[in-house]
Specification:
The structure holds two protein chains of two kinds. Chain A is an alpha+beta fold. Chain A has 28 helices and 26 strands. In chain B, strands 1-4-10-9-6-7 form a six-stranded mixed sheet, with no helix packed on it. In chain B, strand 9 and strand 10 form a beta hairpin. The chains are: A alpha+beta, B alpha/beta.
Chain lengths: ~725, ~120
Amino acid sequence: MTEVKKTFPIKGMHCASCVRVIEKSLSELQGVSSAAVNLVTEKASIVYDPSRASDQDLASAVANVGYKAVLEQKLMNKDEQKQEKQKELKSLRNKVMFSLILGTFIVWGSFPGLMEFAPVFLRNNLVQFLLAIPVQFWAGLTFYRAAIPAIKHRTANMDTLVALGTSVAFSYSAFVTAFPQVMQSIGIEPATYFDVSTIIIGLILLGRYFEAKAKAGTSEAIKRLIGLQAKTARVVKNGQEVDIPISQVSVGMVIRVRPGEKIPVDGKILEGGSSIDESMVTGESMPVDRTKGDSVVGATINKTGTFTFKATKIGKDTLLSQIIKLVEEAQSSKAPIQRLSDLISSYFVPAVIMLAILTFVIWYIFGPVPSFLFAMLNMVAVLIIACPCAMGLATPTAIMVGTGLGASKGILIKDASSLETAHKIDTVIFDKTGTLTYGKPTVTDIVGDVLQLAASLEKGSEHSLAEAIVRKGEEKKVRFLKVTGFKAIPGYGVKGKVEGKLVVFGNRRLMEKENITFARLDLAKLEEEGKTVMMLGVNSKFRGLIAVADTLKDTAKDAVGKLRKLGIEVIMITGDNQRTAHAIASKAGIKTVLAEVLPDEKEKEVKRLQAEGKKVAFVGDGINDAPALAQADVGIAMGAGTDVAIESSNITLVNKDLRSIATAINLSKKTMRTIKLNLFWAFGYNVILIPVAMGVLYPFFHILLNPIFASAAMALSSISVVSNSLFLKKAKI
Amino acid sequence: MSTDKIIVTVAGLAGIIFIYWFFLMKKEKEVSVAGEVDITVSGGYSPEVISIPLGKPTKINFIRTDPTECLSEVVLPDFKIKKQLPLNQKVTVEITPKEKGEFGYACGMNMYHGKIIVK
């Protein structure tokens, strides 16, 4: 094997002894003949045999001695693959042109009605033979190259059929050219069929060319995602800013992002803030504001401000990389609907060959004179018309486009079977807290002039409700007053002295304890709405109240409406008491509520509904939901929050938009429709046209399929399936 | 029936039986793998059927030597793996099976098949 030279950056070196250690470790690897490490450029150069030492071996050799090798294997490979693909396409195009041009000459010289106008030499069998040779054995070599090794494996494929069909037509014609008198002696006119062999090769190659081009379109989504990755990062080090390749960024580095620039990796803002366009990753079209302490996502675009952030996730851990991985995995998985075509495809080609032989025998025995010619041409037509490719492409191409389309809208689908199941969903269960609601209590009502006092008092408290009140105070820009003698009374509320007055703030029981009278009517009404009410008393006199509630997300009602429109039953599940639960549910437009359900009972509720014969989707976000998400037919997790939820869910909504649940179900319906149409085409095509090629219509209508038309139909069938999948891109979901 | 017709009928029937036997009654030879295996991709996969241990990582190296377009992609749907196989290059796939059973793999168009048996 040949040796090649490779240079790659090494991270973590700081002295000359590091150089020696790395060089030693690398050169001890099998397949590496020399290794040199440069401390200044922080790079290693090796001469090695790639077939004996992989990039992984190199990386681990460096890692074993405590450093990190940066091997951009993936990127380079992708480029090489692309080049290789383009080269293949170009050579395919040349072969198509070549065979179709030569084929046209042969048709001109041999087709009744046309041949009369052809130059005399074109009508000569020998000339046609010479023209057909390069088509058969150069352009058509690809069929033999695929068919012969397959036969060694005792398998047969598409290429076997084409190689067989064209070889039969070519050999017969070559025989006629060489020994016309033999044919004459048995009463058959010595006509050749070089037009059949050449045009079939040309058309089938043409079909492959278009199919390859169209297939590239089905993987566009993933290519777009990969293309989003930033190339460099502007790192701030010792007060200086340096641009470094993204592969060299490590966790903890401080990175500066200026307006219009791409955020290189995931991280947390240290200084500054900006409006950020996250649409490419989340599908959310409105830019979002991020300031100090907020998380930013790699590959998103900084619109207006300048900020610095600390890298928290790099390489394969970033959100974008995880999305890419998830989409790639989904596109590699198999939808259950594909099982039937799998089964058929394993018997298909041998069955077609057997049918072709049967066709020959039947035509030879029962066919009109010259029966041998009818038998041979119909056999060739059967071999050529059969198209196993269309069946093989029907499902995967639609899955590729469907999952890609989902990803572009912030809907990540874990695998093909999730995408398939989603269209059967008839019941959607929403977890309440954090899914339908923001999961954070907010102030909803303020009665009386109480906010300043309440917020001042609660500033010292750590209760989650206190946080809501302080936040409201900050929002309203109240002046926080000094509190002395602050005391939290668990289960009741808080008290303290503000500007010399005794202020108490808490629930009904606190008021009763402090002998403060209050308006019960207001209280009951707010509590009926599912809100938590806290009252404020100053010097034993009731001053007013503040109601706090976990509020419904803006999109919740719309999302529920969309699902109901699809005829789906919507259920809310929560640990809250009946009253609070019903109050929130009615705001969202949900009629069925499962309240007072303990976290570990959610899974049982899902099971119970499934036992009633329902196809259940569960929408949740937290770790507590993981068992229910896994139990549901389709588990839908909101946001890229917790890894556990994403792992146990089938669909992740990166865009955190509840309305995407209906979009996902619609996407599943559209994808399934495309798959079914594809399968119908692919199967219908073979089921109808193979018998036609065999000649079943001949006894009734004298219709036979010319092998040339058979090859045109076959080329069209794969293209139509792939194009139909591409139509899905345009679907409104 | 004339002699030639009888010959064609007999030869045709023999041909059909041969095709059936040749393609559909093939015995798959199972290769037991521990740790790592090279699979040559040329007109199919050899070895075609491999058996690997449950719960242990196994490296499968695909080396494609056949330029057929169809074979340029290998799909292991149960392991959610799809890889491009550049010509004459080793592409390694690592799997750690979590359940026993037979798992098929195939080319991108589902024309060539192989099987992984987890024991």
